[in-house]
Design a protein that fits this description.
With 530 residues, the chain is of the alpha+beta class. It has 18 helices and 27 strands. It has an eight-stranded mixed beta sheet, with helices on both faces. Strands 3-2-1-6-17 form a five-stranded mixed beta sheet, sandwiched between helices. The radius of gyration is 22 Å and the shape is globular. Mean pLDDT is 90; it is low at 330-335 and 337-348.
Length: 530
C-alpha cells in the first residue's frame, strides 16, 4: 500500500511517500519552502500560491526518486500547522493572505473582548472563560488564537470580511483545493475553541459563536480526521502529477498525529517534539485543562482520546536563528578560524549536525550562559506576547560556542518547565519519546535527558513523525484497523538516552535561574515591546 502525506510546516512542506504492510517504510521524500511574512503590527502571513507551488514541485519530485507510479497511490492526506486562518469564497479561493498561527495582529480584539469584566483569571473575563471551559475545557486566552484573527479581519478589512463564505484552517484549505470540498476536520475546529467536545454535542457551539460574535454561516461542515474528505479532482491531479480520483482523507493538524507517529498511544504516554515550534504532550482518554498555564487536552485523531498539550512557540526556530546569525555570514561558517570546506559535507549531513558537534565541545551549563527561547512571545506556562529571547550572564571569557549551546539548553529548560506543568494535572510517562528534527541530534537528545531527568527514546523517521502518524491513520482507515494498535505494532524506539548524574548539579542551578529570568524581566519586556 502506497500513501502520500504532505507534512505541512511553518516554513516548508515535506512530501512523503510511504509503503505500509508489515512495517511502515519511507520510500521517498521531497521538500520545498515558502515564505513567512512578519509585519510590525504582529502579523505573520503566508501565500497560498507559494504553498501550492511547493506541493506541486515536491509531488513531481517523488516519482523521480522512487520506482512507484502515480497509479499505485491508494490514499493521501495533509498533516499541517494549526491555528491558522484562511478565509475563502464559495469556490474555495482565498480572499486574503492566510494568517499563520504566529499572527497576533488581533491583540486589540482579544483585549476588547476578553479583557473586560469585573472578575478576571489570567487577565481574561471569568464569565467568558467559564462558558468556554464548560463546553470544551479550553478558551481563547491568547492574542494568537484563531478567533482574534477572524475578528481582526472583520474590524480592519470589511471588504474582505463581507465576501467570506467559510473560515478554514491551513490543512483544510489544502484539502479543499485538492478535492473541491470545503470542510473542516474536528481537530482544527476544536483549535478555534468554538467547538463543543461534550459527548453527544460534538460540533460548533451556538452559544460560543454568539458570545464571540462569529457568524455561524462562516463555519464549515465538520468531518473526522479519519473520514474520506473527497477524491482528487482532475485539475488538482494534473497540477500535482497524480491520477484523478485518489481518495483524500480528512487529515488534520500536526499535534493531532505526532503522538501516533511517535508510538505514544496508551493513556499517559508522553512525547516531546522539537521542530520549528516545540511541545510536550501526554496521550489521554479524558479531557482536562490548566487555564493558568495555558494547557488543554486537544482532540486526537482517534475519537474519544486527547493530547494534553503544552507549547513552546519557537524551539527549532531559535536554532535556525543561531544558524543564520551566530554561525553564518555572507562568506561562510566561522566557528573555527577557517571556513568549512567540502570536507564538511562528507562528515555532516547538515549545518545543524555540525553545530551539534561543535556545542558538544562546551561543558554542560554553557559556561554560565543562559538563553530564553521566547523569540516570538510565549504561550505556556505563561502567556506573554511581549516576552523575547535573551542571553544572560555573558562574560569576557565566553565565546560563540557557549552562546550556541546556551540556545539548545534554553530550549530544553523550557521543555522541562512544560513537562513539570503538564505533570501537575496528569501523569507523565517515565520514559519519553523525543521526536521532530531536534531528535536527530544525539547531543540534544542527551541534553534533554540530563535536563529533564527522564529516559529519552527516539524513533525512526523522526523528522517525518507527523506524516508517519497521518499515514498510519490513512492506512488504518483503508484496512479497517484500529490506528492505535497499528501504531503500537509498527513504531519502535531506535535509541535510548539515560540521564548523566554528573550533569545534574549544573543543570539544576541553571534551570532555577532560567525560570527566574521571566519573573525578573516581564515588566522590562512590556516596557520595550508592549
Amino acid at each position: 500500500m502506497y500513501i502520500i502525506i504532505y507534512d505541512f510546516g511553518t516554513s516548508s512542506v515535506k512530501t512523503c511517500l510511504f509503503e505500509i504492510d508489515t512495517e511502515i517504510r519511507l520510500v521517498a521524500a521531497a521538500s520545498a519552502g515558502y515564505g513567512l511574512y512578519i509585519s510590525d503590527n504582529g502579523g505573520a502571513e503566508q501565500d497560498t500560491e507559494e504553498w501550492w507551488a511547493a506541493l506541486c514541485s515536491t509531488t513531481h519530485d517523488l516519482f523521480t526518486k522512487a520506482d512507484v507510479k502515480p497509479e499505485e497511490i491508494e490514499g493521501m492526506a495533509f498533516c499541517s500547522q494549526m491555528q491558522g486562518a484562511v478565509f475563502v469564497d464559495e469556490n474555495g479561493n482565498a480572499l486574503r493572505r492566510p494568517m499563520n498561527y504566529l499572527d497576533q495582529k488581533g491583540f486589540k480584539e482579544y483585549k476588547d473582548c476578553m479583557g473586560r469584566g469585573i472578575i478576571k483569571v489570567s487577565g481574561c473575563s471569568l464569565y467568558k472563560l467559564v462558558r468556554n471551559l464548560i463546553v470544551n475545557y479550553a478558551g481563547s486566552t491568547s492574542a494568537k488564537d484563531p478567533v482574534w484573527k477572524y475578528k481582526w479581519v472583520e474590524n480592519n478589512e470589511p471588504d474582505v470580511f463581507k465576501k467570506i463564505y467559510k473560515w478554514l484552517d491551513i490543512g483544510d484549505y489544502l484539502t479543499s483545493r485538492c478535492t473541491g470540498k470545503i470542510v473542516r476536520t474536528a481537530d482544527t475546529a476544536f483549535a478555534t475553541f468554538l467547538y463543543d467536545t461534550r459527548k453527544g454535542k460534538e460540533g460548533w457551539n451556538k452559544g460560543l459563536l454568539k458570545m464571540y460574535k462569529v457568524d455561524p454561516k462562516h463555519m464549515p461542515e465538520i468531518i473526522d480526521c479519519t473520514d474520506l474528505a473527497g477524491t482528487l479532482t482532475e485539475k488538482a491531479a494534473r497540477e500535482l502529477g497524480l491520477i484523478p480520483g485518489i481518495p483524500v482523507f480528512g487529515g488534520g493538524g500536526d499535534t493531532t498525529f505526532v503522538n501516533i507517529g511517535a508510538g505514544c498511544t496508551r493513556p499517559d504516554d508522553t512525547h516531546i517534539y522539537i521542530g520549528t515550534s516545540g511541545w510536550v504532550s501526554t496521550f489521554m482518554d479524558h479531557q482536562t485543562v490548566d487555564i493558568d498555564a495555558m494547557i488543554t487536552g486537544v482532540l486526537s485523531a482517534k475519537h474519544g482520546f486527547y493530547n494534553y498539550y503544552a507549547e513552546l512557540e519557537t524551539a527549532g526556530k531559535c536554532y535556525e536563528w543561531v544558524l543564520n546569525h551566530l554561525a553564518l555570514d555572507e562568506i561562510g561558517l566561522y566557528l573555527n578560524d577557517t571556513k568549512v570546506t567540502d570536507d564538511y559535507e562528507s562528515k555532516f549531513k547538515s549545518l545543524y549536525d555540525y553545530l551539534s558537534a561543535e556545542v558538544e565541545k562546551v561543558p554542560p551549563g554553557a559556561n554560565g550562559v543562559i538563553f530564553t527561547p521566547w523569540m516570538h512571545g510565549n504561550r505556556c506556562p505563561f502567556e506573554d506576547s511581549n516576552a523575547a529571547g535573551m542571553f544572560f550572564n555573558i562574560r569576557i571569557e565566553n565565546n560563540k560556542r557557549d552562546m550556541i549551546r546556551a540556545v539548545l539548553e534554553g530550549i530544553c529548560y523550557h521543555l522541562r518547565w512544560l513537562l513539570e506543568s503538564v505533570g501537575k494535572k496528569v501523569r507523565t510517562s517515565d520514559t519519553i519519546r523525543f521526536v521532530g528534527g531536534g531528535a536527530l541530534s544525539p547531543v540534544i537528545s542527551q541534553m534533554l535527558s540530563d535536563i529533564t531527568g527522564r529516559t529519552i527514546e527516539t524513533v525512526n523517521n523522526t523528522q517525518e513523525v507527523g506524516a508517519v502518524g497521518t499515514a498510519l491513520v490513512v492506512a488504518a482507515g483503508i484496512k479497517g484497523e484500529d490506528v492505535l494498535e497499528l501504531a503500537r505494532r509498527l513504531v519502535k524506539s531506535n535509541c535510548t538516552f539515560i540521564p548523566n548524574p554528573k550533569n545534574k548539579e549544573v543543570y539544576e542551578r541553571n534551570y532555577k535561574v532560567f525560570k527566574n529570568l521571566y519573573r525578573s524581566n516581564s515588566a522590562n519586556f512590556k516596557r520595550i515591546n508592549g
